[in-house]
Amino acid sequence: MPHRNARLTVHGRRLLIARVVGEGRPVAHVVKELGCSRATGYKWLARWRAEGDQGLRDRPSTAHHLPHKTPATVETAICQLRQDRKLGPRRIAPLLGIPASTVHAVLTRHGLHRLAWLDRPTGEPIRRYERDRPGELIHVDVKKLGRLRDGGGWRVHGRDSIESRRARYATRVGFDYVHCAIDDHSRLAYAEIHPDEKADTCASFLRRAAEHFTTHGITHIERVMTDNAMAYRRSRAWRDALADLNAQARFTRRYRPQTNGKAERFNRTLLDEWAYQQPYTSNQHRTDALPTWIHTYNHHRNHTSLGGKPPITRVNNGAGHYS
User: What is the model's pLDDT at position 274?
Assistant: First the structure.
């Protein structure tokens, strides 16, 4: 098959031969009519004289001899290290005395997945999924976060500051519990901060999260996925909240947080871009910054899994919510 910019197809090459050989015309004149160079014309003329009509067909560009090809034994060792020890190219390369780029090429050639795509204990690819429409599945999780003292913590004053040393012997300030909900299809998110993660708190949060999603066009929640905490598994308040929303409960596999991976990834983004983004001077200062960050996440922050667009673009009536 000729490449997309080829001047001559097999038919064009036959025209070249017919006009040069059959009509006795100069190669320079014919190639100008066909829109190719003299070198190309003489090349196909020479092939036709040597091989006949078969010589006008395209040839594979694969090299006939590869003197520097990686030996099969080395390729086997590379694949074995990846499968047995879950090592990347930069760690495999020193063990075998070859460049990391060669290791990467071998792993790619054998179709071995990136380590980020593997479940480390089993070595099996992590199955990634995405629901077809907004509201089909909502992921819910709670992130436990240490409260801040007035005046800020060690991120403001430094780990070796007087304030930091005093805090070691002072009364503990406890924890905040950041309740998060994220839509599987659109990645639209909602979060609140509460002093606990009890069943009543979780149930009330779910109702307010549903109201938040409704204002953004997700009018019906079909399923809610959580971990196996008692507040979700054996709570009447949680079951009543699901019944009010006409939604079904879904639970993660035990000891497999990857099942609720979108919520786990959102928690990581939450910490990086909100909780630890700046040195807050008080716990209230950090709390007040959460709604603004949630708005930015939903309406303005580009999401890599959405082709660089914010989550609101995947919601049915997302237009008009960019303010």
Answer: 94
Q: Residue holding tokens 């099942």?
A: 259
Q: Where are the domains of the chain?
A: 10-56, 72-117, 138-314
Q: Residue 197 is encoded by which pair of tokens?
A: 């993660």
- Determine the residue type at 167: A
User: Is residue 189 helix, strand or coil?
Assistant: strand
Phi, psi of 104, rounded to the nearest 5 degrees: -60, -45
pLDDT tens per residue across span 100-146: 999 999 999 988 867 766 666 666 666 667 888 999 999 999 999 98
Tokens of 101: 């780029």
**What are residue 178's DSSP bridge partners?**
143, 193
Which secondary structure element, helix H or strand E, spans residue 27, and what is its range? helix 27-34
- What CATH code is assigned to 138-314? 3.30.420.10
Q: Which residues, at least 6 apart from 173, have a Cβ–Cβ distance to it below 8 Å?
A: 146, 147, 148, 149, 283
> Quick check: helix, strand or coil at residue 196?
coil
Helix, strand or coil, per DSSP, at residue 191: strand
Q: Output the pLDDT for position 277.
A: 86
